[in-house]
Amino acid sequence: MITISIKENIKRWWKGLTGAENMQELTKLEKEILAFKSSLRRQEMIAGERYYEGYHEIMRRERTMIGKDGAVIPLKNLPNNKIIDNQYAKAVDQKTNYILGKPLTFNSKDETYLNNIKSIFNKRFHKTMRNICKNSFNCGIAYLYVYYENDTLKFKRFKGSEIIPHWRDSEHTELESFIRIYTTIVIESGMEKTLEKAEYYTKEGVRTYVVNSDKLIFEADHQYNLITEYEMDNEIPVSEMAMTWDRIPLIPFKYNDNELPLIRRVKTLQDGINAILSDFTNNMQEDSRNTILVIKNYDGQDLGEFRHNLANFGAVKVRSTENGDGGIDTLTIEVNSENYKVILDIFKKALIENARSFDAKDDRMGGNPNQMNIQSMYSDIDLDANEIETEFQAAFEDLLWFVNQYLAYKKLPVLSENETLEVIFNRDILVNEAQTIENIKNSVGIISNKTLVANHPLVTDVKEELEQIKAEQAEEQAQFADYNNAFNKNVGVGNEE
């Protein structure tokens, strides 16, 4: 671990501002940021985030027609429902809860090290991991940033759409540096202003820039105005030291090896579901006041007036002539709801299959499903969970390096080379508890009690449960011993008589 004083950091930044080498680097960063912001990859990431939040393509749809000159023009007088049935968000939540609905479990023979690990990977960390998992589905990759705050190790999620990674290798296993772009709200002259920033992370530290019309302005320009010449030549009293790592403190958590977001598989299917529901509602709402009308002997000439009277009064005047009776007929199309229902079911099943999630209302779940039916229903999501777990296990190896560095800094025990830490993802799968308990009963005497307890659906902490069983057994033995002693005394008294 390398430590650099804040004074040295500021001097380095300030010196870098005037160097030709820094200007070349600045130009390179500007081009990278511009290319990333306009790339299809980032647009796909943002689409995944938008669709999860409920902002779908259907929201932009308009009812249109071909105009007199052949151009497409919007129609304002027809129903234009924009209904969203967010099956994509449901699939993301299902997959996230399946793999990280329950807290992670850590196993190691080194009890002291294990207790230290559990204090770091606490409930707050579990919440962060859930957000990372969700973002990895939406963007294909998400990042965990490791940092110090108040002399304590902290973790923060960075979205995939914010990060421009610089990989050392083609397999994307190790980072050399990275850029983070994000927006923040600042107050200037009493008014809120949205400011875009870019942070460039290297082993030497972090450089912060303000993005202004795709140009980078080194934020040390602003900081220097707050620093006196005395403070530049002496240690700044606010904080004595700033710390940097020997590695880039950013851990990539990938959805899959190719870093492809889930939205790529299901976007067209989700759009189809929204379109079917919206079209069905539109057709149901097209009544005599906005559908096609055939008018016979209308008592008037202006069709605009006709529509106005129909909309306001629900009636219009017609007249009969010697050529025929007056009247109004409508050209309508029968709306068969069964057709929409069939197509909608096809789209939903296709989305579930392509998202590799599961249908909780599956026919196999009717009655009292056996475990084989449940496992069959979960087969697709299980395959996807295997892949993401492989990626996350590799990420945890990198994360543990930073944790061990922190423990060493705190002079706490670090895991020895001969020992390993096992990270277990407790998948939240539906089980037939009655069948599981029956299987455990039938296995008594065949396998160890520890294995039986670990697989019991009512047990959350195996170690605590085994200790409780041991304590209850000891209490029962003590009570039995007291009973024997009392019985023997009573028998002895009867013999004396």
Give the gist of this structure.
The chain has 497 residues and is an alpha+beta fold.
Please describe what this structure looks like.
The chain is flat and about 125 Å long. The strands form six sheets. A five-stranded antiparallel beta sheet has the order 7-8-9-10-11, sandwiched between helices. Strands 6-5-13 form a three-stranded antiparallel beta sheet. The chain has a two-stranded antiparallel ribbon with strand order 1-12. Among the domains are: 191 residues, no CATH class; 105 residues, no CATH class. The chain is 48% helix and 19% strand. The chain is α+β, with helices and mostly antiparallel strands. The longest helix is centred in the C-terminal third of the chain and has 35 residues.
Quickly list its features:
19% strand, five-stranded antiparallel sheet, alpha+beta, 497 residues, three-stranded antiparallel sheet, flat, 48% helix
